[in-house]
Amino acid sequence: MRKIILSIGALVILASCNNQNNSSDVTSENATNAPVVMVTDTANAAAFKFEKESYDFGQITEGEQVSYEFTFTNIGKSPLIISDAQATCGCTVPDYPRKPIAPGEEGKISVVFSSAGKTGMQNKVVSLIANTVPSKTELHLIGDVKPLKTK
Question: What is the pTM of this model?
Fold first, then answer.
């Protein structure tokens, strides 16, 4: 009886170790395909200060493109490193600096929105992943796309 209890106990321990190993393989990076930035020293972290976090492009006609540059300053104490920028759909394409932005320096996030096939009110979100606290920052392109009038 004692051997059976010990065997069951050993199996439970092994099974729990196996489960821990499997779950640790699924990281935030694997689940979202976005890099994970870990900041341990929050007092000295980099920090965004955007002139505007939202740009209202007003009213455009379907098929037109809108471009905007979001300007920011690193107001933190460490170089700001943007590891990724993703938009909510393929109609919005962000471009971001690949080199670190020193404290006090400016940078720009360029965003192009193509309204082809889009009508109505739009709120296109660009998510930035950086060594900031929090690590995710969102920018918005907002406006109204009027349908293309056909003759």
Answer: 0.72
